[in-house]
Amino acid sequence: MEDFVHVNIFATKGIEYLVVIAFLLAIIPFWRYLNSPGRLTASPVVSSIQDAIQKMVGSIPKGVFLDPTHSWTFLEPSGSARVGVDNFLLAATGPVNYSELRNTGDKITRGDVISVLEKEGKQLKVYSPISGTIERSNRKASNVNSSDSEFYDQGWLYKVRPTNWKQEVGRLLFARKAEEWIKAEFDRLKDFFAFSTGKYGYNPEMVILQDGGALAEQALDQFPAEIWVEFQAEFIDANKVD
Amino acid sequence: MSINRRNFLKTLGVTGTSIIGARSLSASPSVSTVEMKAVLIDTTRCMGCQSCEYACAEANDLPEPEDYPEVDVNRATTTEQLTVVNGYDTSEGEIYVKKQCFHCNQPACDAACLTKAMHKTDDGPVIWREEKCMGCRYCMVSCPFEVPKFEYDSPVPSIRKCTMCYDRQQEGEIPACVENCPNEAIAFGTRRELLTEARRRISESPDQYYNYIYGEKEAGGTGVLYLASVPFEEVGFDTTVQKESYPEKTKGFLYSVPSIFVLWPMMLLGLYKSTNDKESEDTGDQA
Amino acid sequence: MSQIETVASAEAQADSRWRFLLSELKPKGKIFTPFNIVSVPIIILGLIIIFIRFWKGLGAVTNLSQTVPWGLWIGFDVVTGVAFAGGAYVLTFMVYVLNLKKYEPIVRVTVLNGFLAYLFYAGALLLDLGRPWNVINPIIGNSFGTSSVLFLVAWHFMLYMLATLIEFSPAVAEWLGMERARRILKGMTIGAVIFGITLSTLHQSGLGALYLMAVDKIHPLWYTEFIPILFFVSSIFAGLSMVIFEGSITYRVFSEKVSDKDHKHHDKLIFGMAKVCAGAMFAYLFLKLLILVHEQQWALLSTGFGAWYLLEIVGFVILPMILFISSIKQHNLVLSKIAAVLTLVGIILNRLNITVIGFHWDAAVRYVPTWMEIVVTLAIIFIEIWVFRWVILRMPVLSKLSKYRKPLTHQINEAE
Ligand code: SF4
Ligand code: SF4
């Protein structure tokens, strides 16, 4: 039959090329969709706490002291000390409101509640690492990203004129020691989440990503108030040293 | 065709048909319904009178030929001579052979042409269309018989070759050379008829003919068939020409193109993902 | 800022962008360099020949014939030139897909080279077309010859130029100080890269596939059904050798554009690329051997063409491969550069053996290009170098922008 009538062996080439073009157009949205984060982890910034920690480790500037209850302080040349919440806490909670800010002129002692991190009614209390008189408070603190390099410059909550700096600061952590401690805290945090996840029957995908280690930032966000209470007890109150 | 397809699928499903059968059916997505026209040239009847050359020149508005067939002088077709008759000194005496485009069943020139200017019509003739051609000469590179000729000395060059008088055929006439051959050395008809006719001539006078029809199988079968009294290499034919069609040569490559277009991007994306995943926050260079 | 002011300043910005572009068009640097003295006459002569070609037809300037319809312009400019431009897809593959960041400093200049090579060498195709005004036919779609390998190759050329343009465009945006555009273009890079690699795979091999139907015309030692694969594999080391060769010239000529650190870094990259070349050549040799066995052509090796074939393989594939390897082992840059040049000669030989030298190898009258064909080829190469130089001197190709020119916005501010 081929010998007597014309047969075009390339007849469908044109259509095939059209299919190819369709494929190339489709592959972009397909790939985007395939790689977009699933619904449960679709919070505004999905990176991992590990990242945040990694950034924190090695970037704690000289002169910054960490309190085991996850606050920090830094003595300015002027003699007043910046006080703030460390980025371990902020990475765990994500963006929060700072409420119950103390007023300028208030006298505080080390261990006093100076601020409450609040998110949809769930709260964490934060204690002051030092004693002194509040000179200024920073209303813009919540605008500063915890992973910013400027964090220690801009992300402070209060400037405090310390009354007992030398002694109190002796109990705080700094430099290598602070970093090692943060890493250990992070490991503890993973266990904590894994445990709470099991306990409350939440989908582990919410906090623990596929590689089994990294935690979604704002992991705490996903948990109910009970876990916040436990977190307060486990990572803040239990760390109090006096 | 659709019935063939269905049958084919059925056989495939039930008996698992042979690869050959599958190929001929599945690889022929567009099968024409008209029978191809062809030309049969019987060199035993050709006297070398050049009537066909003159007729061709007239039909195509070309100058009359100025030379004539000489034994063992190979005249090639040119942009102004779309058909030529050559003489050969053979064991059976002088033989004259008319040459022109073979109008292949699966023409290399048609497959090569990126503008479809070279075009195998369903009726059989392979034609060239001026308004489409961009003069790349890929048809010339591909044609195994080196038939298409290019007007190198013109700023507005054309490709010239025999068209089997396609225009005349459209008007119901037969090719000029066929009409004007005084000795009926050239016959015109459907390829099927002419092959039967050629076989009949061979079997009726076996001592007059060498038992071979040149063009039946050459280059996948051609629309111009030849009979001769001597082996064809004696009369200037290339008998080493492959029997499959020439477009088959590029088929493998062209058929794989769409698959590569699908597989490569997917594979590369996967590779990209796997090598770039660690630094999810990396934005490349900062300005 | 009030609305009116914004508009006014936007206008001022647009206006000064034009002034900036005009000022950039002026030549920079000395005028009477040896290169200019050689290249300008050739370019002028080439343009005259091109004019004659369009006026009188191809026959007036070329030696092409009815049996050899493709000569130097296709065989060298297009087929060889495109193989040489293969470096762009190989490097973008290494940098963007494999994430080998160390090659990043040379990726821009290579992509620029690739783009210009396609623009000019594939543009040479237009000179060769008898009826170039019909070139739009297979583009706008009133005549899609989808069965043609050339159709595929032509389309790929156009699309690939687009892809390389996108890959290069962030540099243009930086030059013009268009930050927003730069970001958008940058985001398109990986897509363009992947598309570009796919296209390159297909048209590098497609250039070989062009000759598949010329089975009876090409010398059997070079004709094989595997030409497409050979072309693809050889384009890898052809392209990288070109990057090595070109890079060492560029880095010398435009030395002031490159920081010391980058100079040192560049040497390291050469060894890396030499390694890739050696690997690709190793595989290529075995492919050649396999094909020789498959086609059973070894008897031909004792003929004259066989010797020519062996010269190509031994002298210009095996030898440069060994040189590449020993240059890596001995940390000898010069060896790498020699190897790169040998490889390039080998690629020219190989491509010409298929397209010109081995094409109708048995014909009584051989095709030899006219001097005019050669001059046009040289003129095209020179024009490309001119454009390349123009770009290099202005856009942030070899180094980051800030090193030698303030971003446009600063200039605007200063002007006011
Ligand atoms: S002989 Fe050549 S020009 Fe004629 S149809 Fe066949 S391939 Fe085309
Ligand atoms: S020269 Fe014309 S007819 Fe021949 S392949 Fe090119 S476009 Fe087609």
Basic shape of chain A:
elongated
CATH-level-2 architecture of chain A: Beta Barrel
Which class of chain B in CATH terms?
Answer: Alpha Beta
In terms of per-residue confidence, which ranges of chain A show pLDDT below 50 for 5 or more consecutive residues? 40-47, 204-214
Percentage of residues in helical conformation of chain B = 25-40%
Listing every helix as H and every strand as E from the N terminus to the C terminus, the arrangement of chain A reads: EHHEEEHEEEEEHEHHH
In short:
The complex is a heterotrimer of chains A (242), B (287) and C (416). Chain A is of the alpha+beta class.
What does this entry look like structurally?
The complex is a heterotrimer of chains A (242), B (287) and C (416). Chain A is of the alpha+beta class and 242 residues long. Chain A has a single domain (44-242), classed as RNA polymerase II/Efflux pump adaptor protein, barrel-sandwich hybrid domain (OB fold (Dihydrolipoamide Acetyltransferase, E2P)). Chain A is 36% helix and 19% strand. In chain A, strand 3 and strand 4 form a beta hairpin. In chain A, helix 2 (49-56) packs antiparallel against helix 6. The N and C termini of chain A lie far apart (99 Å). Chain B has one domain: 2-Layer Sandwich (Alpha-Beta Plaits). Chain B is built from nine helices and ten strands. Chain B has helices at 2-14, 19-26, 51-59, 108-112, 138-142, 166-170, 176-180, 191-204, 247-276; strands at residues 30-35, 37-42, 84-90, 93-99, 118-120, 126-128, 149-150, 159-160, 186-190, 224-227. In chain B, the strands form four sheets. Chain B has a three-stranded mixed β-sheet with strand order 9-2-10. In chain B, a hairpin with a 5-residue loop joins strand 5 (118-120) and strand 6 (126-128). Chain B starts with a helix and ends in an 11-residue tail after the last helix. Residues 1-28 and 279-287 of chain B have low confidence and may be disordered. By secondary structure, chain C is mostly helical. Chain C has a single domain, classed as Formate dehydrogenase/DMSO reductase domain (Formate dehydrogenase/DMSO reductase fold). The model of chain C is unreliable at 401-416 (pLDDT under 50). The chains are: A alpha+beta (242), B alpha+beta (287), C mainly alpha (416). At the B-C interface, helix 4, helix 5, strand 7 and helix 9 of B face helix 2, helix 4, helix 7 and helix 8 of C. Strand 1 of chain A pairs antiparallel with strand 1 of chain B. The site of one iron/sulfur cluster has 14 residues of chain B, from helix 5.
